[in-house]
Each structure stands twice: as structure tokens, then as C-alpha cells.
Amino acid sequence: MSAPEQDVREWLLRAQSDLLNIDNNLNSPTIPWDTIVFHAQQACEKLLKAIVVQKGNVPPRTHDLGLLLNMCPEIAARDASLSQQMDKLMLLFGSRYPDTKWPSEVEARDTVAIARRLAGIILPMIKTKP
Fold first, then answer.
1. Taking the mean position of all CA atoms in its chain, how far away is CA 42?
2. How far apart, in whole angstroms, are the C-alpha atoms of residue 76 and residue 70?
3. DSSP state, residue 129
4. Which of 100, 80, 125 is nearest to 37 (CA)?
5. Can you tell me whether residue 107 is helix, strand or coil?
6. Which of 18, 65, 72, 112 could cross-link 42 (Cys pair, CB 3.0–4.6 Å)?
7. Contact (CB, 8 A) for 90 and 16
């Protein structure tokens, strides 16, 4: 694994870029709800990988939020609903492919709330580390 993949800051910068993509798209006159869901999933993935790296582990090359959350029990312990929310987000993440239905506005906004909730848990934990 390359040095950037072992750098917590790099994962956070990329997660923050996904969150910015969400905000930019939400301010668009035409909102691509599938793109919102995609960036919400990506933000969660990168936030969880930042914690994996902070703990001294190598993050797996996966999009599976459930697996990543299981690698971070201290995060799951902060909010008992996170596991279910990660599962929901993973189901909607599949909407980027033609053989699935488009996410609704409500579903997409729910994924944004999930990503922001996870960021609200993880970012303060990382900032408190030297």
C-alpha cells in the first residue's frame, strides 16, 4: 500500500471532497439523486478508512461499509443505528447501475444525513489525536 493510503489526512481530504460534492449538487437547479447517494457512500467509506488507518491497520480495498464499520467497533458503539444505516446506504449505492431503481429525493437526503452523522462522529475523534 502506498504512503498516501496510509495517511489519515489523505482519507479525510477525500471524504471532505465527497461531502463538498454533495453540497454542490444539492445547490444545483437539477439534482442528480444517484450522484448524491454515490458521494454519501464514498464519504462514509473514506471516513471509516481514516479510522482504520489511524488505528495502524491497512484499509481493505472494498466499498463494503458494513465490513469497514466492523473494523471500527469504537465507531459503531457511538451510535447503535449505524450498522443499519450503513446497510441502507449500501443498498442505495447500487442505484448507480442501470438494473436498479433510481433513488428518490427522500432516500438520497437520508444518505446525506447518514454521511453527515458519521462525519460528526469521526472528525472530532481524529482531530483529538496528536
1. 5
2. 8
3. -
4. 100
5. helix
6. 18
7. no
Structural domains of the chain in order of their starting residue, each with its CATH number: 3-127 (1.20.120.330)
Dump the DSSP string for 50-94. HHHHHTT-PPPS---HHHHHHT-HHHHTT-TTHHHHHHHHHHHHG
At 28, list the grid cell: 444545483
CA-nearest of 39, 89, 90, 47 to 72 is 47
Amino acid residing at 4: P
pLDDT band at 3 (very low <50, low <70, confident <90, very high): confident
pLDDT at site 96:
73
C-alpha cell at 45: 467509506
CA distances from 81 to 66, 102, 117, 118 (A): 12, 24, 11, 11
At 89, list the grid cell: 446506504
- Whether the per-residue pLDDT at 44 is higher than 60: the answer is yes
